Amino acid sequence: MEMYFCPLFSGSSGNALFCQYGNTRILIDAGRTGKQLDEALMSIGVDPSTLDALLITHEHSDHIDGAGVMARRHHIPVYATQETWEAMEKKLKKMPGDLIRTVQSGKSFWLGDIGVEPFSIPHDAADPVGYRLWGGQMSVSTATDLGVFTENVYSAIRGSTLVLLESNHDPELLRANPRYNAQLKARILGDHGHLSNAACAEALLRLIGAGTKHVVLGHLSPENNTPTLARNVSETAMIREDIRPGRDVELQVALRDEVSSIFRLKETD
Ligand SMILES: [Zn+2]
Ligand SMILES: [Zn+2]
Predict the structure, then answer these.
(1) In what order do the strands lie in the sheet with 250-253?
(2) How many angstroms does the Cα of residue 207 sit away from the middle of ligand 1?
(3) Where are the strands (E) in 82-239, listed by range?
(4) Using only C-alpha atoms, what is the Rg of the chain?
(5) How far is 200 from 165, CA to CA, in rounded Å?
(6) What is the whole-number distance in angstroms between the Cα of residue 55 and the centre of ligand 2?
(7) Strands, E, within the chain: which ranges?
(8) Which of 18, 175, 192, 204 has the fewest CB atoms within 10 Å, i.e. is most exposed?
(9) Distance from the CA of 60 to the center of ligand 1, in angstroms?
(10) What pLDDT, on the 0 to 100 scale, is given for residue 133?
(11) CATH architecture classification, 3-265
(12) DSSP secondary-structure letter at 262?
């Protein structure tokens, strides 16, 4: 069986990642309007009402904007940690009780054909998590909105077939950006902020060393990064270690405002 993964949106103006294995369809985060999410799903041939679950990483609006609408409109259960629920429940408006589900980092569970492993990430939110999704022997992990790539994150996602990792900013561009105040810069650069291109590249080398074959750079800053720059930093780090993108590993950049390409993972990958 194939495992499908498609970033629908990735970045500070909205995040939503689609994953399917067997008969189970999951959306990680719903940080756009319901209409935009419906259209994005339909553009890849997915009827939004067939989604089995909405997994939420944390309560920042770029991850939950359309969550309430999507859940009510299509009757999809929403999964988040207890602290995240407390932080976002008001923003989701009236959530029917039967759609509220709680997860805990480190506690895996089954959602139909997919095994779900939430893991803790360091970010300035109530109790933020990333997710590793298992389909057979394959797994897809997503980790964005993290200040540092901790050993805990590494051990949670090592060996994943595909990893979508944050490559948020170039620290030089961020520091020189006159439109960001000192406080915002400190927040982004801090241990509970966002991962830089260089930190992402270092983490990817470890993950590729542990068997990851597909990497997607995500949650790029619109002002302090470009897709070309993010890609170059990771590519250069890989080539230095004699890892050839395109031959040894597939490297893609998730688009901010449009649906990215669909990854089709096979058991042999
Ligand atoms: Zn975010
Ligand atoms: Zn965030």
Answers:
(1) 109-111, 114-120, 129-135, 138-143, 162-166, 214-218, 250-253
(2) 22
(3) 100-103, 109-111, 114-120, 129-135, 138-143, 162-166, 214-218
(4) 17
(5) 7
(6) 15
(7) 3-9, 16-21, 24-28, 53-55, 78-81, 100-103, 109-111, 114-120, 129-135, 138-143, 162-166, 214-218, 250-253, 263-265
(8) 175
(9) 6
(10) 98
(11) 4-Layer Sandwich (3.60)
(12) P
Q: What is the length of the chain?
A: 269
pLDDT tens for each residue of 194-238: 999 999 999 999 999 999 999 999 999 999 999 999 999 999 999
- Each residue's pLDDT tens digit, 126-140: 999 999 999 999 999
Helices (H) and strands (E) in the chain, counts: 9, 14
- How far is ligand 2, taken at its centre, from the CA of residue 109, in Å? 24
pLDDT in the model for residue 127: 98
Ligand 1 center to residue 254 CA distance, Å? Answer: 13
For the entire predicted model, the pTM comes to 0.97
Q: How remote is the CA of residue 146 from the centroid of ligand 1, in Å?
A: 9
Q: Which residue has the tokens 């995040």?
A: 15
Neighbours of 130 (CB within 10 A): 28
Rounded Cα gap, residues 263 and 161, in angstroms: 11
Residue 269: what pLDDT? 53
Name the residue with tokens 């799903």: 41
Domain range list for the chain: 3-265
Question: How far does the centroid of ligand 1 lie from the alpha carbon of residue 134, in Å?
Answer: 23
- By the 8 A CB rule, do 91 and 71 touch? no
